[in-house]
Amino acid sequence: MRKKTLYILFTALFIGICLVPVLGMVIFGESEAAANEILAQKPSLMQPDGSLNENFTSEATDYIADRFAGRQQFITAYAKLQAVLFRESASPKIVLGKDGWLFFADTMDDYLHLDTLDRRQIFGICRTLEMMQEYAQAQGADFVFTVAPNKNSLAANAAYMPRTFAPYAAEKNLEMLEGALDRYDVNYAPLREVLDEPGLYHRLDSHWNRLGASRAYTAIMKSLGRNAVDWSGEAYTTAKDHPGDLYEMLYPAGKELDENQTFRRPFRFRYIDVTDVVPFVSPEEGLTEYGTEEAPPVDKQLLETVCGEGSGTLLMFRDSFGNSLHPFFGDSFERAAFSRQMPYRLDWLEGGFADALIVEIVERNIEDLAEMAPVMPAPAADPDFSPAEDSERLILLKAEESAEMPGYIKVSGLYDSEGIREDTPVYINTQTDLFEACPAGTDWTESGYGCFTAYLPGEAVESGILSVVIHGNRDWLLCSNLQMN
To answer: What pTM does this model have?
Structure first.
């Protein structure tokens, strides 16, 4: 009898412990997401069509595991224990550096010079950027391209990397790209040299701080040929008020804040209440000041600013490094739009809305430039060649109506690059016209293949027959024709 009682008590205790997370959710509420974490959604017992959800049990388990009360505190306690006892990060996304420095694990390939792009991809990026610049200039906009260095790519910050990681001797992507850009007529603003000193990147965050952003702004404006505010001479205060993105990922319940600067000179621009994802269409209404509660979140898909003391109009494609960078540009231009859209919508330049175009991307995402061709009309081409037939060269060619550009056909494809010049342009022949395609696309799935993407006007492909022309080691080659429906 006593043994049975013990079994009952043990079972009740076990069930009670299992119910603690659920009861905690009821009493104390659900745990919130930490940093950029995406939590499982509440499951539904029935499907929209009225049938039973067969995955309800597993979905409910995921939901409770993501949201039980005290989850963030448990994660934080475990991560701190790992860091103190074993000097290891509890998260595969975070690298634990010296003196409490944190680094984003997605930058490790760049840091170690691993998984680098091949020369065909580097050419594809360079030529695509050159085509973007040519198109922007044709629309009356000055162009500049820049790369935000990874935190651990700068010697001042890499000194805090763990000694267990030693880079290989091979060139990494940014080094290869910068070397190749020297051979192309692309207006490039290099940032590594101006940022490689202490105090310009956060210790607990993957990004530069406001001081670093001001340095990047000055270098970009100089390459753009525009007058820049000399923020280096402006006084600022430093305070621990910045929630580091890496710290929040590793220690979601932690309270430590990172240092950041606040310039005493106020920003003069105001945000426009954007009503659409397309820039320069919203009226200058609902203006809000920078840094106020009413201001839009800095990581919003589209931000627009207006500044009476500024001059010119800017379109800037940016990523999360633009969160602290865009205020400096908003303060310099009369009107500016900052988009996180990718692929880049260069077709927005039609109509002459902007007289300057900036493209900023972080170093760890350089590969995206080889995979996501910009949305813009393909330029007409008139090369001097007489291609030979090579029907077996083309692996894939597809054409579809463009969702972004009404009246245009998006043509993309994949070809076998064996025996093909690494720096060959790609041309699309429509029987009546010839266009140059961007040597970039989403089909970089395996080495040994080249990609291309082009947006062709609908009237140019009325024949329904397309062919691709590329350059072999000796001759131009005409690839297989595509009969469109």
So the answer is: 0.88
